[in-house]
Design a protein that fits this description.
The protein is built from twelve helices and no strands. By secondary structure, the chain is mainly α. The radius of gyration is 16 Å and the shape is globular. About 45% of the residues are buried.
């Protein structure tokens, strides 16, 4: 439910649910639930602009996560692997905190884990994070390459939200590379698709 609120642009209820659950779970006894509670915090805080908190929660999850034990969470909760997700958000948060080496390392780790798991939505998420890292760094060629890979996976596996997100990133890359009209049109269409 908290994921639904977060994806629907309702961060306050998502944060409230995550806070309520945080006190109910013992990470030693139930690491899966502990990871998923951190999951709500790292995504929600990131999109609220609280990147230091997002980084802390993502790093806690990285410390808890074991791919052999915890990949099942992909199918129980959000449809993507939380180990990939926490690495993406730790990387993006690190970039915004002025830690580019840490940011690159975390996004590379996300990509490596996604490749190992061979899970389409998690792979698309790793490309999403990589594309945004390159966007933050002002590298449109690399951002566009990652976004095109993300879009290819999202279209193949019919992941509409990710299709919209990837299309926005593709439009951004095109715009920054001089295809201003096509890029702007692509970003506008992607925003409409995400809203739908």
């Amino acid at each position: 439910r908290a994921q639904y609120y977060m994806l629907s642009g309702k961060p306050a209820p998502a944060q409230e649910l995550a806070s309520r659950w945080a006190g109910l779970v013992n990470a030693q006894a139930d690491p899966g639930r502990a990871i998923e509670i951190q999951h709500m915090f790292w995504t929600n805080n990131f999109f609220l602009g609280e990147t230091a908190a997002a980084y802390d929660h993502a790093e806690r999850a990285i410390g808890l996560y074991d791919p052999d034990r915890d990949h099942y969470l992909t199918y129980k909760y959000s449809g993507h692997d939380p180990g990939v997700c926490c690495r993406c958000f730790a990387g993006l948060s690190a970039w915004l905190a002025g830690e580019p080496d840490e940011a690159r390392l975390r996004c590379q780790d996300a990509m490596g884990l996604a490749e190992r798991l061979e899970h389409p939505m998690s792979m698309a998420l790793a490309y999403w994070g990589t594309s945004y890292l390159h966007m933050f760094a002002g590298n449109p060629e690399a951002a566009l390459r990652a976004a095109e890979s993300e879009l290819q996976i999202a279209e193949k596996f019919q992941l509409p939200l990710i299709v919209g997100q990837a299309a926005f990133q593709v439009g951004w890359g095109q715009f920054r590379l001089g295809e201003r009209e096509a890029g702007l049109r692509g970003m506008e269409e992607a925003i409409s698709a995400i809203r739908r």
